[in-house]
Design a protein that fits this description.
about 130 residues, alpha/beta, Rossmann fold, 5-stranded parallel beta sheet, 5 strands
Length: about 130
């Protein structure tokens, strides 16, 4: 694993109502040396993000309780500045990506996508953070 600007291993929150997708993401990130938390709905994702202040958040767009965009808005309103990636398989992906970036996400990734996208995006976004979110 690459060294990061933090003294501790970065913590990543993965939220996706498709349990298999969330579990695979968590497995890949955990194997790469990251500390990973998971949520299977938007309400749990928002609560975990506020309580634990992860270093990076990966949110699926369509989840029960709250969409990924709603979670993004809520955690930004609390002052959490950690990078956020929105994932989705919606048909109008371009409109979603525009909205996600406008709302403060750093990336929007089409799902399903190449298996290695996590291991390419995550280190880059963690390295670009100006300061730790804690």
């Amino acid at each position: 694993m690459r060294k990061h600007n933090l003294r501790v291993t970065p913590r990543i929150l993965v939220a996706d109502d498709e349990r298999d997708m969330a579990d695979v993401c968590c497995m890949l990130l955990g194997a790469a040396g990251y500390r990973v938390q998971r949520a299977y709905d938007g309400l749990t994702a928002a609560a975990l993000a506020k309580a634990t202040k992860p270093d990076l958040v990966i949110l699926n767009y369509l989840m029960p309780g709250m969409t990924g965009i709603e979670v993004l808005r809520e955690i930004r309103a609390t002052g959490l500045s950690s990078p956020v990636i929105i994932t989705s398989g919606v048909s109008d992906f371009t409109a979603l990506a525009d909205l996600a970036l406008k709302e403060g996400a750093q990336a929007c990734v089409r799902q399903p996508g190449p298996a290695d996208w996590l291991l390419r995006f995550v280190p880059v976004l963690l390295d670009r953070r100006p300061t730790p979110s804690r």
